[in-house]
Amino acid sequence: MPASPEEKFQTGLMLELEGLVEKEVDRHLSMAKEWFPHQYVPWGQGTDFDGPLGGTGWTPEDSKLSTEARESLIVNLLTEDNLPGYHRAIADVFGREGAWGYWVNRWTAEENRHGIVIRDYLTVTRAVDPIALERARMKHMEEGYEATHGNAFLHGVAYVSFQELATRVAHRNTGKASGDPVCEQMLTRVAADENLHMIFYRNLLGGALEIAPNETMQAITEVVKAFQMPGAGIEGFLRKSVIIANAGIYDLRLHHDDVLRPVLRKLGVFELEGLSDEGEKAREELGEFLDDLDAAATKFETRREERRARQAAKAEAGR
Predict the structure, then answer these.
(1) Binding of Fe cation 1: at which residues (predicted)?
(2) How far is CA 150 from CA 89, 147, 220, 287, in A?
(3) What residues make up the domain containing 127?
(4) Nearest Cα to Cα of residue 178 among 316, 51, 66, 299
(5) What CATH number does residue 14 fall under?
(6) Model-level pTM?
(7) Which residues participate in the annotated binding site?
(8) Domain count, the chain
(9) Staple 80 to which of 115, 172, 191, 214, CB 3.0 to 4.6 Å?
């Protein structure tokens, strides 16, 4: 079956970007630091659980984390758990040969460390119910993962450029919210990896903008408008995301100010010249969406502060 015009375009663009991918792989390897998950886990706090070893079963009192930090850690971990699905999705887009294939495997190996260290930390510190966590992992992975953009190359590159930065922000803020220096140190280390991943994809997206500015602008706009974190398929994700947003760990303001705007600014999206009518239309849609998101973020912040004020007044009255 002959390739469609879209497939020919995608193949041609990937060939043109192959040299940049090789350059970015070399840059990444020169900056990435080797680290070991077992060194970030407080093993001395560990005790046997109930089951074959006859230990003590988990109780809510075992956890020293706040509800907000605990829910965020669970979402972060379950998101990482679906790594096989992400590997398949990204390999379907980038392929398995040459520099593209090497990067897919390297990225997967680095991301896998994140799931290892977070799970070990949660288990050893008894921060969450390990039985509930394992059941949630099974259910989430049974659902699998399908990218909303399918195998569209430009959409895939645009998505991970924003998603990796979003993950970095979520990890760092979860660490701060945990109140545990060990947890914060661990998630700071994880976030450093996510930052390097973001730079790789962002630079690749910048290369695509130079070669195919109109198509890339359209892809960026469509991805930003439909953006969802990869963990959106987690059971109870909406409830968990509300808790996380109310705690200020990851909310609309952070998504707008610390994720979308920095990537778009670095790429010079709103300064780009020579766009076609289609490219310019996409950019206008992007600007309008960002304005609406900014307004929604402000509205959410106002309501959150009002809610916090009411709760504080109620607590004061109850003393």
Answers:
(1) 80, 111, 114, 194
(2) 8, 5, 15, 25
(3) 5-317
(4) 66
(5) 1.10.620.20
(6) 0.93
(7) 80, 111, 114, 164, 194, 197
(8) 1
(9) 115
User: Residue written as tokens 């909310």?
Assistant: 251
Tens of pLDDT, residue by residue over 73-124, are 999 999 988 888 888 888 888 888 899 999 999 999 999 999 999 999 999 9
